[in-house]
């Protein structure tokens, strides 16, 4: 019984193999490309002209977005001061809306151009290596065909609005990077090459008291208990008029107290704390978000933006998340009246890591 079954199975397999030898390899033949369906703009010149105007409108929207950016950047930025939050909100709105319109206008315009005006027929061509001069000439001819199919030569309105939008769109990013220096004098910006060195210095200096944020009350070492965390700014920051928010963004500090025997202190930093009171920059080294959470039992500092976690017992070394650099430590001591004061400024730059960042002061 089993033998017959085996023979039957073998005969069946042989029959299938034999049948397959006399038939095409694929049971379903390649149907080829579907028939081309012309679009309305392909047959109606008025529809094509209307599509051209629509694409140009999108490019003009991009130009308007760039203009809005500059109105917020130069116009609103020169009114009032850093403490006028209404103007700050308006400026941020114009900056964000301007960049969004500048990028979306070009993107949507190009997509609409391709879908309505550029040829949409499908072609299949085998890939081959370009070696001979004839092949190179053929490649140049293909590029010329692409330019012709894009109709960029025949439609000057599209070409001119695209060129205008493309030239203006990068300007917001150029001026935003230029302003990293945060210097009012343009010549200073040029000399400092965008001023990455300015991130190395804050309002902290030798003898500057640590005061509570936002009250400005000084802090004695006896005020900081085990497990506590205080948000601290340098004394005198509240008296700064121009650039106060920018200075605070760089100088804000977290002060915590824990058992110094639990901290792995780097040689040379033994006197940077006061009986287990440590001060670290509150600015995350990933993208600059404020460190907001302190876990008392684990001695971990957590950034709420992207969950970067810093271990206070390892001098705020990164133990989780995208941050790649430990939080800078502020050296502190006490003055004659027992108040916490800074020994110096930070010995390394605060904030997000950048390509020129180093450890030297």
TrEMBL record:
Transport listed as a keyword: yes
Looking up Pfam families in the UniProt record yields: QcrA_N (PF19297), Rieske (PF00355)
Subcellular localization is given as: Cell membrane
| Membrane topology type | Multi-pass membrane protein
Q: Which domain of life is it from?
A: Bacteria
GO cellular component terms listed in the entry, alphabetical order: plasma membrane
Q: What is the role of the protein in this entry?
A: Iron-sulfur subunit of the cytochrome bc1 complex, an essential component of the respiratory electron transport chain required for ATP synthesis. The bc1 complex catalyzes the oxidation of menaquinol and the reduction of cytochrome c in the respiratory chain. The bc1 complex operates through a Q-cycle mechanism that couples electron transfer to generation of the proton gradient that drives ATP synthesis.
The record's InterPro entries line, in alphabetical order, gives: QcrA_N, Rieske_2Fe-2S, Rieske_2Fe-2S_sf, Rieske_Fe-S_prot
Please name the GO terms that the record assigns under molecular function. Answer: 2 iron, 2 sulfur cluster binding; metal ion binding; monooxygenase activity; oxidoreductase activity, acting on paired donors, with incorporation or reduction of molecular oxygen
Q: What is the similarity comment for this entry? A: Belongs to the Rieske iron-sulfur protein family.
Against CDD domains, the record matches this protein to: Rieske (cd03467)
Question: What UniProt keywords apply to this chain's record, in alphabetical order?
Answer: 2Fe-2S, Cell membrane, Disulfide bond, Electron transport, Iron, Iron-sulfur, Membrane, Metal-binding, Oxidoreductase, Respiratory chain, Transmembrane, Transmembrane helix, Transport
This protein is called what?
Cytochrome bc1 complex Rieske iron-sulfur subunit
């Amino acid at each position: 019984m089993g033998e017959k079954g085996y023979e039957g199975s073998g005969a069946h397999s042989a029959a299938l193999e034999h049948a397959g030898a006399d038939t095409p390899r694929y049971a379903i033949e390649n149907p080829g490309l579907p028939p081309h369906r012309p679009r309305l703009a392909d047959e109606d010149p008025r529809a094509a002209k209307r599509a051209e105007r629509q694409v140009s409108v999108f490019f003009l929207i991009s130009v308007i977005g760039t203009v809005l950016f500059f109105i917020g950047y130069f116009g609103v930025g020169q009114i009032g001061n850093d403490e006028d939050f209404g103007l700050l909100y308006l400026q941020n709105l114009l900056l964000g809306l301007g960049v969004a319109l500048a990028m979306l206008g070009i993107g949507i315009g190009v997509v609409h151009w391709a879908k309505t005006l550029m040829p949409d027929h499908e072609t299949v061509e085998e890939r081959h290596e370009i070696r001979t001069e004839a092949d190179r000439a053929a490649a140049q001819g293909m590029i010329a065909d692409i330019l012709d199919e894009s109709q960029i030569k025949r439609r000057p309105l599209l070409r001119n609005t695209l060129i205008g939008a493309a030239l203006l769109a990068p300007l917001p990013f150029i001026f935003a990077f230029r302003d990293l220096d945060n210097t009012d004098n343009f010549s200073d910006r040029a000399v400092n090459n965008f001023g990455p060195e300015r991130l190395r210095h804050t309002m902290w200096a030798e003898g500057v008291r640590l005061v509570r944020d936002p009250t400005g009350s000084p802090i004695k070492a006896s005020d900081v208990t085990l497990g506590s965390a205080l948000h601290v700014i340098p004394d005198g920051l509240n008296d700064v008029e121009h650039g106060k928010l920018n200075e605070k963004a760089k100088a804000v500090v977290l002060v915590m107290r824990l058992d110094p025997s639990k901290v792995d202190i780097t040689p040379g930093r033994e006197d940077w704390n006061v009986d287990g009171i440590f001060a670290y920059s509150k600015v995350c080294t990933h993208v600059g978000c404020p460190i907001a959470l302190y876990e008392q039992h684990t001695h971990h500092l957590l950034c709420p933006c992207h969950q970067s976690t810093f271990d206070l017992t390892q001098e705020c070394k990164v133990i989780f998340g995208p941050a790649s650099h430990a939080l800078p430590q502020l050296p502190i001591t006490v003055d004659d009246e027992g108040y916490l004061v800074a020994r110096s400024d930070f010995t390394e730059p605060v904030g997000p890591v950048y390509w020129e960042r180093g450890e030297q002061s």
